[in-house]
Amino acid sequence: MKKLRLALILIFICIFGIYFFHNSFAADSTVAKEKGGKITASDKKSSSHPTTEISMTCSECHEVDYDAKSTATRMWINNYKQMTRDEIWKKIADFLPYRQRFVMATVGGSWWNPYPTATTADFTLVPDEHIIICSNEKGTEKLAQLKKNPYVSLVHFEGSIEGPNPPEKRWWKSVQIFGKATMFDSDAKEFEELSKKYVFYRVQSDRAKKRMVMTKIDIERVIYFDSSLMKEGYSPYQLWENPNFKK
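Now predict its structure.
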């Protein structure tokens, strides 16, 4: 009788154990399916990945390891539809007609002044040459920094801003340009060539020669953002890269 009772108890324990393990595994599987696994920001969606809305990012379902190269922006570029290289460039050129005001960040690299310097300046895009140009006053901090480190980042943006009274239409466009700057004094032939493309309007070209330096930035890549692209099924972030750029 005792053996029978002991056998029944063992059977009960086995059944309970199997039931508990099964439910725990099922719960873990549900969490895994709902939350997703750990990924890096450079990972791309597989063909078997569940369908997601263009407004979603990987971090909503996954734990993501970010680094300086694989940014959140890169995830949008990697995993949502991109336009052709020519289509992106046309969007960029249309967004930057004539002259536009940019914020330009430079880094001098001095140990006593490691901070970047952000300044505003007017730039003119030359679409056929994949360059953007501006004129700078001689002796400015940004020129001193560019001589030490010619690599720059520029941003131009337009759009609606949220506030106490939200706008009727929410929209946003921006370009973030990465490139390498080259500066030309007035005695260089490139100064005259660039000044004609830049078109001075506050300072005449003869005065500009005495006080200005022409700066040409060869564009390495551009991140173009346009919130309206999501309605067309494209990623709002579009990456344009220059295959002819030389560091």
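The radius of gyration is 28 Å.
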